[in-house]
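Why do we care about 3D structure at all? Because function follows from shape, and shape follows, mostly, from sequence. That is the central idea of this module. The next example makes it concrete: a single protein chain, its amino acid sequence, and then its structure expressed as tokens.
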Amino acid sequence: MPVTRTSESYRRRSLLSGVPQGAAALRRVAVALAGLVAVTVFGTVGYMLLGLSFIEALYQTVFTVATVGYSEVYERTAAAEIFTIILIVIGVGTVLYNLGVLVEAVTEGHLREYLWRRKMDTSIEQLRDHLIVCGYGRVGRASTANLVDRGHQVVVIDSDAERLAGIEVPFVVGDASSDDVLRAAGIDRARALICALDTDAATTYATLSARALRPDLVIISRARTIDSKAKLVLAGATRAVNPQLIGGRRMASFALYADVAEFLDEVMHDDDIEHRIEGVRLGNRSPLVGRTVAGVDVPGLCGATLLAVRKPRKGEFVPTPAGEMVLEAGATLIVFGTPDQVDRLRGEAGTLAS
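And the structure:
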């Protein structure tokens, strides 16, 4: 059945307002069934007061309300006939209302939509250490595809239901700056959040909301202009990224250093390449803290190559660090190796990925 533009617009508005039509349809079904039960109880009690047994009264009520038209099981008195007329008027109206509500819920898909949404919400509630992508435009779509290809669990937030049609990852339709929407996406259990909304203002509001809910969350925000990068960091972004600036720099790198740029591009983004450049951050209780680079011997420890060390609290990078350099808590080891080698280093360091 084709959906008119009016009904589709109404459906989107009701999703964004937080009152899905599916929930309203389920409530109408519940009210209708409650009315049917009330009429059945009313009829059964009434016939019992007229002298029928419970089974006889229930039987008489059911076929009267259902308009089946079997012969009466009661003695035909004026009181019984008046009560039956009242029951028919009330009962038939209730049955017709029930049929109308059920047909509407099934044919318009509201009930199916509600049950599907509940299933989606349940799947999101079970996620742990996932990533949230706010905005499913070109940048959000590319980020989601890359994360999924690398085996990560992703939840997408977007205010436009049409953008999310056919998406294969869990999603929430709503305003990414809303605390309720962020909680529905599981922000309290998320590993990181990528914010790439249509405007810098929307991205800033969503970043502020996410940072207020999770002070420790890694938040990567897309900046449409260079000037907005600093503002997004002030709003709480761990890092603000300008895709145009990065794209321009990469194009220049390919023009000047094609082989180097292509190698780094494949290492960072090509799933067919086994080796990766990854970071391992040292926690306060890591056994590597306080030891020298030479004493740790990363290649001998796990087989990976140590490229650089970043000092704590987003400090400077030290490429090819000297052997006598002492590793501090909060420092990040930038290594080049296979996933197994990096996992062994994390195991030795007792840390998670940076």
